[in-house]
Amino acid sequence: MKSAVTTFANQKVLVLGLGMSGVNAARLLNRLGALVTVNDKQKFDDNKAAQSLLADGIKVITGSHPVELLDEHFALMVKNPGIPYSNPMVQRALELKLPIITEPELAFEVSDANWIAITGSNGKTTTTTLIGLMLNEGGKHAYDAGNIGIPISQVTQTAGPADTIVAELSSFQLAGTTTLHPHIAVLTNIYEAHLDWHGSRANYVAAKMKITANQTAQDDFIMNWDLPEMHELAKQSHATIVPFSRQGAAGARATLTAGWLCFDGEQIVPAADLQIPGTHNIENALAAIAAAKLSGVDNAAIARVLRRFTGVKHRIQYVTTIAGRKFYNDSKATNVEASSVALNAFTQPIVLLAGGLDRHLPMDDLVPLFKNKVRSIVTFGQTAPLIEATAKQAGVPVQTTKDVTTAVPLAFAASEPGDVVLLSPAAASWDQFPNFEVRGDAFITAVKQLEGEQA
Asked: SUPFAM superfamilies in the record, alphabetically (predicted)?
């Protein structure tokens, strides 16, 4: 962290919403001498984070978001990324022309580390993890942070000028950035996602593109050149464009060529050596290779990482094999596009576990994948009727059950040796779980119990 940050000293700052990012933002601001007020809608008696901050001497207001709080003339609002701009508190702040940022922006403003920032509809966490592993394997000192689950405002207090922060950034986080300026930015892909929050696809894309908004020609912007939209979006950036391509797109620097993952024509590792399944993971690996090479990591270090990396938890994560069936946890697949990627990752017949929060989004795109890839489906949650209808349209047998835990033995019974049993819900978890991680852990627990019963 910069040694003498005075920007926030004696400034009244409102941290709106807690969670890990809000707690760490509040603590960082307090350390920097700001006059911090935290406002969270969860009641104080049930709010351990608020209790902890109060013990640190930080002003805490809980139980609701009182708009009149903004009459206290704050200089800045640090907003939880999940709170939409339609929130009354945020709307009032906008009316008052109060600057509103998210926690990554705060972290960047006080950081003196190098930054590599990664965003995209899918593949962010895997790409972020790979880049961090490659940099550390290559003798650099890198910290993974951001949407990957580690608050950047926590990491930035440790990371110094010789270190690199590898930051996974969601569209929600990027929407609240103004000065963010990574020296390397990565855009893995863009699909339809979070339109209920952003209001339109144009707003969603604009939020993603803030990752490169402050870059210059001395910076690098790594983009997926297999997607035609990227060619147009690249024109909005002042950075040096570094394309990657799995499909042989002209001009790409990180490529899949004759079965090898390459950079600037140099062979780095055979695609067959990757431990993570699916063509989408080839794309993630190519994006990571580009970032690592631009950071000065040698080919041998990159190859070692790719040969031993078995995946990120909850993202097509191999769990175990039971009686010839391989079980995979892809709880992070909270939309149709992510589940489509998972289904396309396997050549074996699949027994699919799917279901979750109903956002009233169509699932028609899953029909051909169900028809060609899936042996049977077990569904649960609010979207169960929609998935059941989609399965019947594809002519695939389907069972409905209570939740992911009860789905596991049903899926095993519907499978055959050589099959993949895959949790890839195609829906958010919030109808039954606080987040996709808890849902994935419930799946893993149920699989391990099944394994014990079958032993």
From this structure: MurCD N-terminal domain (SSF51984), MurD-like peptide ligases, catalytic domain (SSF53623), MurD-like peptide ligases, peptide-binding domain (SSF53244)
